[in-house]
Design goal:
This protein has 316 residues and is mostly helical. It is built from twelve helices and no strands.
Amino acid sequence: MKKSQIWGMNQQNHQLKIWAGLITLYLVWGSTYLALRFVVETVPSMMASGFRNFIAGTILFIFSIISKKYQKPTRKMLFTTIFTGFLMLTFGNGLFTIAAKWIPSSFSALFSAIGPVLLVSLLWLINHEKPNLRVIAGAFLGIVGVGILMTLKSLALKGYEQYYMLGVLFLFLAILAWNFGVVIVKRAMIFDFHASQISGMQMMTGGIFSLMISLGLGEFNHFDFSIIPPKAYLSFIYLVVFGSSLAFLVFNWLSKVTSSTLVATYTYVNPLVAMILGSLFAGERLHPIMLLAGAIIITAVILITTAKNKTTVENT
């Protein structure tokens, strides 16, 4: 067999691995919204967020040690991971988990797609990384899409209509906190440390703070673990093992072997997966106006993630 043929086969196998990784991200991260909804139907929000992040963070931290990627943390690295762990996971993921009790999973997934819009805005304001006109147009479209979503109070989960706008606010603050954390990590320049160590430490920190808040709120005092149904247990295991651990490792690998633009496609494929799953398995209504808003937001994200400028947009 000629060298050119062997090289061609290797390239083909490499491309197949990349697409297998992308499909994994699409399906796993797209399904986490529904899994989260199933968990918080019976488990208190901060408790669920705390246990999920602490366990997943421990898995990733152990992985960094076993794979010999672990390095002794510097003072700067420790401060950055502790602060961003609280900001992104205790505050951000905590608010997102609370909102999941009131807002359909498909809505949450669509709303989350504004992450790149917020990220380029923060990078512009804080890092002075001025986006080009295409990115600005995408950001404007994203704002329009979110504005449309905010009018759909009828989509609130039954019995939680009065919490709809508060849920939307929590989603916005959660996504803002997450992307603010991304900017802080980028400015801290701690990328000499492996991503599994950084994220593992962030998740463990965020999980511990969340569990402390849960304890302070009395969630442990008023909750009976025996009432958790099998669906919630299985969903929680899925979130920890697949949503937070496996998908992260896949994302980290893809970020190294292919373009950030291709990896970023998960930001507009995930909402589509979430909407389909929410409709099929949770009976969530796909309102025509929500679909319109979704199309606008996804168009905005495509404009941003495919724009060629000095700003790199990654929602990690």
